[in-house]
């Protein structure tokens, strides 16, 4: 049953529906997520369903993708939003919120949903698979989709916001996204070594990378021959289909984050800044980039690559990650 505290005013002039929802859940939220995904598709909203994984992994992936897609994070009606579910709805909210421009809200009622949109401009909805029935979750989702930013809501006693509050909310659109992005490290201010003094990072500066024509989103620049090393970059969301080389290679992540599936060893690796990985010659591996990513790679001999699957097959396999049987190596 709908929450009687939600004003009908909040849905009389609804904002444009999102062009796309990126969804994911853990095992405790997957059934509810599937129900909501079906409902979204019945509304002709495009859904990218990332499937099921641990609450922190799946929420982080949804958060990364929503963040990467948010070219205008301060928009009062973002075109791409997220939907995450776990047992409580809290854990997925915590990890989705670790990415710039993501405002995830755990909503257990339609009042929560209306408030999160009106006040916080929420662009990721987190729901509880244990505390919320499918019917209630659909009502929560519909309210969240249809409630405009700054609209009357339970927190405003279902009345329009006053002029002072309206001004505060308008300013919040530009002020919220930059919080946390300009934090400085006091040690760096005191003259300690920082990123600009890192030898590897200096290799990247002022270098123009050449596009990798056979893999969309990638670029590379060789910086040394025999042994060969190169700086490689990939845009967020890029995928390297399963492939292998005649050489083994070492890499160090300089920026961003990625996941590597070693199909030969049935192992997968989550890599972030500073992480190192060696892949032996002949090992078949697949890669997905969660953020704009740069890394240094080194190998012996002439560069080559042999693809073991098509791009669409790779994307399909990645979407079924929860059932891939790979061991996550930490």
UniProtKB/TrEMBL annotation:
GO molecular function, one term: isomerase activity
SUPFAM superfamilies named among the record's database cross-references: Ribose/Galactose isomerase RpiB/AlsB, RmlC-like cupins
InterPro entries noted in UniProt: ChrR-like_cupin_dom (IPR025979), DRT102 (IPR012100), RmlC-like_jellyroll (IPR014710), RmlC_Cupin_sf (IPR011051), RpiB_LacA_LacB (IPR003500), RpiB_LacA_LacB_sf (IPR036569)
Annotated ranges, domain ChrR-like cupin: 224-297
Protein name: ChrR-like cupin domain-containing protein
GO annotation, biological process: carbohydrate metabolic process
Taxon lineage: Eukaryota, Viridiplantae, Streptophyta, Embryophyta, Tracheophyta
């Amino acid at each position: 049953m709908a929450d009687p505290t939600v004003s009908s005013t909040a849905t009389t002039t609804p904002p444009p529906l999102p062009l796309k929802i990126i969804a994911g859940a853990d095992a405790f939220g997957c059934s509810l997520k599937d129900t909501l995904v079906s409902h979204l598709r019945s509304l002709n909203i495009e859904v990218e369903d990332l499937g099921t994984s641990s609450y922190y992994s799946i929420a982080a992936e949804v958060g990364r993708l929503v963040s990467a897609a948010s070219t205008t994070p301060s928009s009062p009606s973002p075109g791409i939003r997220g939907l995450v579910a776990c047992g409580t709805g809290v854990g997925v909210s915590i990890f989705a919120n670790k990415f710039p421009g993501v405002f995830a809200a755990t909503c257990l009622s339609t009042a929560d949903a209306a408030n999160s949109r009106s006040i916080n401009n929420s662009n990721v909805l987190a729901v509880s698979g244990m505390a919320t029935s499918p019917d209630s979750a659909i009502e929560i989702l519909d309210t969240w989709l249809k409630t405009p930013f700054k609209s009357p809501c339970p927190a405003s006693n279902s009345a329009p916001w006053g002029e002072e509050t309206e001004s505060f909310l308008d300013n919040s659109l530009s002020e919220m996204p930059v919080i946390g992005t300009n934090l400085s490290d006091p040690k760096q201010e005191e003259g300690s070594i920082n990123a600009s003094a890192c030898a590897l990072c200096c290799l990247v500066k002022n270098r123009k990378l050449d596009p990798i024509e056979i893999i969309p989103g990638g670029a590379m620049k060789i910086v040394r021959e025999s042994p060969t090393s190169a700086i490689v970059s990939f845009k967020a969301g890029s995928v390297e289909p399963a492939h292998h080389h005649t050489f083994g290679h070492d890499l160090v992540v300089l920026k961003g984050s990625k996941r590597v599936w070693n199909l030969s060893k049935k192992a997968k690796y989550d890599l972030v800044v500073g992480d190192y990985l060696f892949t032996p010659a002949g090992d078949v591996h697949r890669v997905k980039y969660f953020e704009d990513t740069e890394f240094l790679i080194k190998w012996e001999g002439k560069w080559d690559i042999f693809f073991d699957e098509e791009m669409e097959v790779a994307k399909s396999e990645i979407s079924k990650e929860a059932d891939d049987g790979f061991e996550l190596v930490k």
